[in-house]
């Protein structure tokens, strides 16, 4: 090996050694992570500093979650698990929604001197929108909606177990009698003694026929999911526009029933949690 070659090889070794020393010095330093969890690292071949995206995004420094529950009992359980001294309850009676803001503003605890309230994040919320039960929704869907004879009979057959007065057997017997009638000419007369309605049908082939139907029924169903069953009156009405018979099921004070039961449910939660409820809406 010539002198020049020896010198060139020595310079290359010096350059590699210097680069290795730089790499060791750089990697031995603690490079700060970014606020989003990303990391700064030396990346070859030019060994430049680059920011690497975080493998798993970091969690927020506070809880940001909205939980919607379907039953009042679940609302109570979640509230008891996560409530803080700042938690507040708001009941929107117009829309039937109860909301717990678990991280509400801190009004302060100094009762002798005025203290500025500490703002809360209002990001952790528990919502109970009082979803209707399947049984109630079936009856509510037919509220004041005209249906034909066949649709009414099918509905009563399917939901006879919800009826407590008159007896389900009497309702099904009425359904059987109605199924044999196909005439469109009829008259209606109410029996004031027992409240039933006598419907007289006639046509050229079958002659005159009379069917007695109750003017009202009492159903026993839960209005809200997981709620207790309550008795509610349902009136049976008839209509005959252009001589065509149709029926209406009218739930007695339907909107008031839902409102009163929602208020009753909220007061039960208020009593169970020993926490006052603010009646109003929160944006």
TrEMBL record:
Pfam families referenced in this protein's UniProt entry, alphabetically: DUF2303
Naturally occurring in which organism (per UniProt): Acuticoccus sediminis
Name of the molecule in the record: DUF2303 family protein
């Amino acid at each position: 090996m010539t002198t020049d070659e020896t010198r060139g090889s020595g310079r290359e070794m010096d350059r590699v050694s210097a680069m290795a020393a730089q790499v060791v010095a750089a990697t031995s330093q603690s490079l700060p992570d970014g606020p989003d969890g990303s990391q700064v690292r030396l990346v070859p071949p030019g060994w430049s500093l680059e920011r690497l995206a975080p493998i798993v995004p970091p969690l927020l420094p506070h809880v940001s979650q909205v939980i919607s529950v379907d039953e009042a009992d679940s609302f109570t359980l979640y509230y008891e698990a996560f409530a803080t001294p700042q938690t507040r309850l708001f009941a929107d009676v117009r829309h039937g929604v109860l909301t717990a803001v678990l991280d509400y503003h801190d009004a302060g605890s100094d009762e002798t001197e005025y203290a500025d309230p500490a703002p809360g994040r209002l990001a952790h919320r528990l919502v109970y929108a009082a979803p209707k039960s399947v049984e109630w929704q079936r009856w509510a869907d037919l509220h004041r909606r005209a249906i034909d004879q066949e649709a009414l009979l099918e509905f009563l057959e399917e939901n006879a177990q919800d009826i407590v007065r008159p007896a389900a057997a009497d309702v099904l017997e009425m359904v059987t009698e109605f199924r044999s009638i196909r005439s469109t000419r009829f008259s209606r007369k109410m029996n004031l003694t027992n409240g039933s309605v006598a419907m007289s049908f006639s046509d050229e082939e079958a002659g005159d026929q009379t069917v007695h139907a109750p003017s009202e029924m009492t159903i026993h169903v839960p209005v809200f999911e997981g709620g207790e069953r309550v008795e509610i009156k349902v009136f049976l009405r008839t209509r005959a526009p252009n001589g065509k018979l149709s029926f209406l099921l009218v739930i007695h004070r339907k909107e008031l029933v839902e409102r009163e039961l929602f208020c009753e449910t909220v007061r039960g939660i208020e009593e169970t949690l020993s926490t006052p409820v603010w009646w109003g809406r929160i944006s």
